[in-house]
Amino acid sequence: MAEPTPRRNEPRRRPAPLLFEPVEAVADPEHFFGLESLDDPGALLNRATELTQAFRVATDRAVEFQAMAAAQLADPRRFDRLTPADIAERAEWTEDYAKKMVEFGRDLLRGAEGAESAEPV
Predict the structure, then answer these.
(1) Which among 9, 105, 23 is positioned nearest to 62, based on CA atoms?
(2) What is the pLDDT along the chain (121 residues), one digit of tens a residue?
(3) Which of 72, 84, 94, 118 is least enclosed, having the fewest CB within 10 Å?
């Protein structure tokens, strides 16, 4: 899937703060999940790798939720449905990316509906 295209002449926004980091740690720009305090390079590599994997999983999951929300907002049964252009503007995506996300979200929602109606094993 294509990545969202940053708009020209607009400053890049900072990522959302991670909710589980203490407020005091966020205030310190050098702090990042305690990695700066690890002296052992092996421990640092292990912890940084754990965080990298956790962030990748979190990113994938967040993208799935974005897609499902986009599909719901574009649902033709809604009287207040949004067009792909509206969704793209709201999410700061290109219109083509918004269309792909709507389709991806529809696929995810169809899978969720199928899972709910499936009989337990």
Answers:
(1) 105
(2) 454 544 555 555 555 555 555 555 556 667 778 888 888 899 899 888 888 898 999 999 999 999 999 999 999 999 999 999 999 999 999 999 999 999 999 999 998 776 554 444 4
(3) 118
pTM above 0.85, yes or no: no
Query: How big, in percent rounded to 5, are the helix, strand and coil portions of the chain?
Result: 60, 0, 40
Residues 6+ apart with CB under 8 A from 109: 68, 71, 72
Enter the tokens of residue 2: 């294509």
Residue 85 identity (one-letter amino acid): A
How many beta carbons lie within 10 A of that of residue 88, not counting itself? 22
Give the C-alpha distances (Å, rounded to integers) separating 11 from 8, 59, 85, 90, 97: 8, 22, 21, 16, 21
